[in-house]
Amino acid sequence: MKVYTSIDMEGITGLVDLTFVHPGERNYYRGQQLMTAEANRVISAAFQSGCKEIIVNDSHSKMTNLLIEELHKEAKLISGDVKPYSMVQGLDHSFDGAIFLGYHACASQKGVMSHTMTSGVKSMFINGKEVGELGLNAYVAGFYGVPVLLVSGDDAAASEAEELIPGVTTAVVKEQQSRSAALCFTPAKTAEILTDKTIEAIHKRSKIKPLAPPKNPVLTIEFTNYGEAEWANLMPGTTLEEGTTSVSFKAKDILEAYQAMLVMTELAVRTSFS
Fold first, then answer.
1. Which of 147, 150, 177, 268 is the right S-S partner for 228, CB 3.0 to 4.6 Å?
2. Which helix H or strand E contains 46, and what residues bound it?
3. Backbone CA torsion sign across 161, 149, 210, 2
4. Which residues are catalytic?
5. Name one Pfam family in it (predicted).
């Protein structure tokens, strides 16, 4: 059995604000340690449950956060930026299941450090259905016929996953109190939770269906201001809805929609506020 693991940072226990997830901030190294520890707990449990190969994709910001020297020796790590498929780089038909660790809720919802890709995105939709990073990544997994077996993060992320993916196992490692505060479980308790939930998720993997993406999906991104929408609209094939900050792109498949999202959001962050 081969398992793909995408690990973000905002959904790791103990990480409650930007000081833990931005390089150079006072708590960033602590964030890296806690992130790596959660990855190791899941990797160990997965190997104990019969996995033969585990690929881990560092999926936060510039994607060089995991401490490889402390990572489980049998795991393989995808690290660095730029990746053509970002948080789901390396995912393909060869995997038997996917695990999303340290995930957070989408921008329009409550949750610890909730957002969707960048601060410039207010909401994102596929064929009119709102999705966050979790949803879009799950659709890419579904494109390859790979079910998402486990999602870990705060309680808001868990609720989003359960609504989106019938039967998915969720591991709640902290409970949101606000966007920058949480009731956090200790790393020792989190280790127990992640071990149990990983074993549970792998045990019932045959009962979880891949989240099939729509054919010819329409990606729509609602930006926080008009300048960001203008920049995103520079991408050929996009349409800026008059009187809104929403930019749409009709894609041939979810992979093209995903890369369109990357281009549109990267363009949008160029907006100047001076």
1. 268
2. helix 28-48
3. positive
4. 115
5. Peptidase_M55
DSSP 86: G
Q: What is the pLDDT of residues 215-261, one digit of tens each?
A: 999 999 999 999 999 999 999 999 999 999 999 999 999 999 999 99
CA–CA gap between residue 230 and residue 252 (Å, rounded) = 23
- Residue indicated by tokens 């610890």: 112
For residue 11, CA distances in Å to 8, 35, 102, 163, 182 come to 7, 9, 4, 18, 10
Specify the pLDDT at position 272.
82
Q: Are 156 and 106 in contact (CB under 8 A)?
A: no
Known binding-site residues for Zn(2+) equal 8, 10, 60, 104, 133
Helix (H) or strand (E) holding 136: helix 133-143
Please give the annotated binding residues, written as ranges: 8, 10, 60, 104, 133
Alpha helix ranges (H) inside 148-241: 155-164, 187-203, 226-232
Assign residue 90 a region (left: φ > 0; alpha: ψ between -120 and 50; beta: otherwise): left
Residue 146 to residue 102: CA distance in whole angstroms: 19
Taking only the tens place, the pLDDT of each residue in 174-225 is 999 999 999 999 999 999 999 999 999 999 999 999 999 999 999 999 999 9
* Owner of token pair 């019932």: 204
Its pTM stands at 0.97
Amino acid at 98: A
Please state the length of the chain. 274
- Domains of the chain (ranges plus CATH)? 2-118+132-207 (3.40.50.10780), 218-269 (3.30.1360.130)
Give the Å distances, CA to CA, from 62 to 23, 77, 146, 239.
Answer: 9, 14, 25, 29
